[in-house]
Amino acid sequence: MLSIEPARLRRLLEQLDEAREDHSRWNARLTRTIVCRLPPDPRDLGDDPHLACDFGQWCHLHPPAELRDHPAFVAMQVEHRRLHQFAARLLHAAATDVPTVPGDFDEYLGAREKLTLELDSLRHEIQGFLRNRDALTGAHRRLDLLAELRELLELSRRGIQACSIAFVDLDHFKEINDTYGHRVGDQVLAGTVAFLMGHLRPFDKVFRYGGDEFLIAMPGADLAAGRTVIERMREGLAALPLANAGGTPIHVTASFGLALLERDLSVEQCIDNADRALFAAKSAGRNRAHSCEPADATVTGMLPFGPDREVSG
To answer: Which of 24, 188, 262, 269 lies in the 20 to 30 Å Cα band around 47?
Structure first.
């Protein structure tokens, strides 16, 4: 779910709500049929009744690609199939005036409760994701950045694991907004984060630092490992069209500044080191990655530069 853009997640949430309503209507109709001894719907007595209702059509025949392999969604499919099996037994009993077996009714109720639980679990997971992420890109919020990095720095100080951080800044992003408009610019930002999150490890995190600038935290990665990851990100991002404007694919490049969370420095100082490396990468021509070496905090492969940032975009 980490690589799903917020707009798509909101649509998935709408689909889950619609599916819940479909299931509620089916359950109300089934209850009315059994209690009032009405003729059952033939679809509920077919060979595959779980595929006949609206919920089943969505859940089994046309599942969202992003949710197909999610554990809660898979469990939801299992319980929905079981629910219809037990519902068919209850309908057969009602139609033939055979007393309902209490065990069948209990199994039906259990499957219904489990289905509802899995559905609610999935909804709450998506809602929680949307609450705690940047609304446009799905990146983690800058508000949570310092607390997260301080925890990672403490792990480094205790010798548990190293952690690299990297600034990512899109090159000439203002020109994209000026040329194609902010709608396309928003697509580029969302596409950038989707690419980064889709090609990082599940426990790596991407924060939106501001505008078109992001910060990646890579726990367990020393500076050498971080360089390998960032270089792969840089090359992959440059090759990928992130938006489309009137049939024209929009490509962007990005500059990267890498640094280590050093045990003898504060989080703010480590962020400054990554920022200096980013500035050096942009000063050297953009579309490149530079790192700030530990201890003396020198930037690898760069010409000297002053304290004031003069390169933008």
So the answer is: 24
